[in-house]
Structures are given as structure tokens and as C-alpha cells.
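User: Teach me something about this protein's shape.
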Amino acid sequence: MTGRRRTLAALSAVLLLAALTGCVELPEKGPVVETEPSAKVAEQQAAAIDAIPPQEGDAALDIVNGFLDAMTAYPVQANVARQFLAREAQAAWNPDDATITYGDITDPSADAGSRNVSVTLGDPESLDGRGGWQGPLPADQRRLTFRMVVEDGEYRIANAPDALIVPAQWFSQRFRQASLYFFDRTAQILVPEPVFVPRGEQLATTLIDGLLAGPGERLSGVARSFLPPNLTVGLSVPISEEGVADITLVGDSGQQNPEVIEKMLAQLVWTLRQEPSISAIRLQIGDERIRLPDGVAEYRVDAAPEYDPTGYQASRLLYGLVDGLLVSGELDTLAPAEGPFGDTGYGLRSVAVNLPATLAAGVTDNGRSVLLAPVRAVAGEEAPQRAIQVVSGATRLLRPSWDFADRLWMVDRAPSGARVILREGERLRGLQVPGVTGQDVRSFVVSRDATRFVAVVRRDGVDRLLLGRVQVDFQGRVREAVGVRTMTFEDADPVRVTDIAWTSPTSVALLSEVVPGELFEVRTVVVDGAPAGVEALSTTVNEAVLGLAGSPVPGARQYAVTDEGVVDLLTSRVVELEGRPASLGYVG
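Assistant: First, the predicted structure itself:
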């Protein structure tokens, strides 16, 4: 097997989300009334499966059946499946190029008037060779036709799709979702990319294979890698009893400067920290042991915090509006901020604070203006600080979003449809966002690493989730939004999504109204669009919920904000606040 096959992915309920996980205990009192089981499952080693090679005298239908069955060998390998192919097809077939999963499959049938044998896949999904979800297989590709030939008196398959074709349930038992860490275009922050990877001892090797494959053409203008191209990982990545992973890469990497080496190591340690048994790595490329400028050859997996995709040294406090004033702090110690918004009632309906918690952007009650003000008083300044107006004349502005580069993203729900407004430095400009601009947009958030956006768009009375990417140039200027995917929900009744919030760098929580003003539901979804992520956790709250307070920082509490306080969505703890909250959340 080649390295890329180690990154095979599954579309199934195997998804393990980094946020809103765990069993939510039901209190004897309080608004949380129902919780569905978490998607978090114990890691289990799936049973090995031995593939059966073709048998003498097999009919053409048996050969196709045997070929499909042989692809479910575990540990994953395609050697036996290849034996069902004709000699020329064996050399040409590359099952590492893609993965196709299916819910069901028809029995092979012979096509009239030919030696062709066909099967039809039910509910097929496709993934790329690295394990990234690509979406449902197009309808015209769901019927697979195998051309049969006779070699040495036996039927063999003369052509086969360059993909591993397996049942979705098989994947659900053997693969889970993890992230590969690349850099943004400016090389300032890491960007996690979700992929499905095999469970068990192959994890470290699989993750490195994925990194070496690079971001790919789909992420052009979005992400970049500092790992040199044309390298391959050795047979495996051994992990010592002390938790040190020895990584040997084969190939010519050329001469690398210290800055590139630092970023290579950052990608590796952030990716490999997902393997709990690894505490540090050692890297060798060819015959050269890679060392940091200080000569250190062992690099801890908790290193490189400055590239944290949730924002280096970003504030972890809560910020929001209570009785019209900006407050900040821990949930039990919220107090008015020192800056203008915490001292004077500016008549705000929502507020967003940048990652270092130095600036707050507030939307006025009428939804027509955005004001900008310091969060805290500036030491040494005697003149009173005031808010400045950065946007005016809008119609109905949604709560803004900040990214790590202090860009402010705003959406105005104008009569003609949504307008996306971007503030870069002191400059304001409009940005055309496919599927968002000109539509009925209900919510809009941008990831802290500035490479993703998530929007809720209502069309014909039905809410849809739009997941897209943001391209920037090497100077960090936003170019355009691309790669937009649309997700719909399988609920019997139309879903009404009233708020969204980040719960990890690769997942968001959705707040939907089940019974107007009385019953609300929180569910999670992963930003690659894989539908298996939608029902990872579903919690209902039986009182009016104003919005969500969510953070992508691991371990951060996620809250449902009500008229009188908040509900901790993990513990069901209910906290009443002094004053009336109108907007509450984390930075970003």
C-alpha cells in the first residue's frame, strides 16, 4: 500500500467533535429537558478481515462480487483486490486516488449484449485520496460498469474506478476524523483541515502522509505547507515508550533555512498531538537529523503555541452586553468594561470583541451603524475616550466577526439582499460572497484563522448552511470567497436556525427554534460539510434562547444565552445574571 491509502476516510457517525462532547447530565431543575447521546465513542480495534482471492472457474458476476468484497480487507490493503483485475488493469488501477462509500449496493448484473457487469451504489459519498470529504457522488456516477475479459481461461476485470469502494458501515468501525495542520497564506497562523483517518496504530503515519500530500489545488490561495514536496514517510513512525515519535522522511528536501524548519516542525507537532501516545518528535530528512537553531533535536508536541489556530494569546473571557453596557470576565464575575461601551450606554444591540480584547465593534439598536471603541481604558491618556462610527446607513446589520488579523467582517441585511462589508485596517469595502451576497442571510461567522466562513441562508422558507473558504494574498489582503458548499437538514419540518457559534476550529454549533419562544435545539456540524457531523450532539432547552456563546478553544464552555442568564450546554448548569443580557460570547 502507498502512503496515501493510509488517509482513507469514512462518512459515518464516527465523527468525534472537539466541542460539545460528553454526556450532558440532566438536572432535576432547569431548562435543559432532553439530551441525545454524544457521538463520542470509545476507541475500539476493529476485527481483521482477510480478503479471498479469485477462485478457479468463477463466473463474471462472482469476479465483480469478489473484487468489491476484497476491498474491505482490514488492515487496509488492495493486493488481493488487484488479483481480480486483468494484467494491464492491475498496473493502471490506483485505489489511493479516492474513496467511495455506499449505504447499499445492487447485486452485479450482466449487461445485455456485452460482457459488461454493472452495480448501482445507494447513497454514495466520495472522499479524496487524503481523506477529505468531497460530497455525494453525482447521480451519473452511481452506476459502476466493469468491462470483463478472459485471461488464461478465467474472467477478469479490464477496467475499474481509481478508488477504494466500500460500505459506509465498514468505515464507521475503522476510521475517525482528525485534522491536518497547514499554514495560512501569510504563514502567521495554522489552519486545520479535517480528514478521515484509520483508527489504531496507523494514525501517526497516516497523518504525516496527509501533510506530505500538501493542501492541494482545492486550497490554493487559502493554505500553504512548509513541508518540502516530493518527500515520503518511511515504512512507519515508531513511537518509543517515552512517547517520542521518530519521523524519517525520504527524498531530497534541498537546503532549508531556520524559519522554514520551525514552521515544518510546527505543522508536524500540531498534527501529531492528536495521537495521545506522542509527547515529542524527532525529524530526519534523508540522512540529516533536523535541529532547531539552538541544536535541540527533540521537539515537544505542545510547542509552537504562537501558531494556535484559535489565536495566539487570544482572550478567553466572555464579553457581551448586559443592561446596555459592555461587560467582560468569567461567567460568575462579569463586570462592566473600562472602555467607552462599559461606561456609557451607546444603544447597542450586539457587540463583537477582537481576539486580543483591545477593540469592540458594536451594532446600534436600529441596526444601521457600527461603532468601534477600546475595550479598556488606555493608561496615560487623560482625554476621555469615545466610540467612533465606522459604518453608517446600513439596514439591518448582523453581529460582526473578527479574525486574527484584526479584520472586521460585517453583513448588512439590505432589502435587495445581504451585503458583506470588510474592514481591513482603516479601509472599508464590499466583498462578493457566492451564495451569501444578495440572499436572505440570518447568521454569518468567520473563523479566527480567517480561512473559513459559515452562513445561514433562508430560501423558500428553508434554512440552509453555507460553508465556504476565504482566499488571501501573501500580504494578507482578502481576495475572494470560494469553494462554497450548501448543507440542508433532513428534519421533517424546516429548521429555523437563529444563531451559530464556533465550538472548535473545525466545527460550529447551530441554535434552532423548535417551538417559537419556548423550545430550542443546539446541534453541531463540522465545517467540511460531511453530513455525519450534523447530529453529533443535540440538546434541547425549554425556554427562550437569545443566542449562543461558543469558542473554538479546546475546553471552553459553550452556553445558551436566555433572557435572565445562561445555560451551560455541557453540565446543564443554569447561571442567572445580574441584569438583562442582550448579547454574550467570546472574542472573534
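Now, about its shape. The chain has a mean pLDDT of 88. The chain is about 10% helix and 40% strand. If you'd like, I can walk through any region in more detail.
User: That's plenty for now, thanks!
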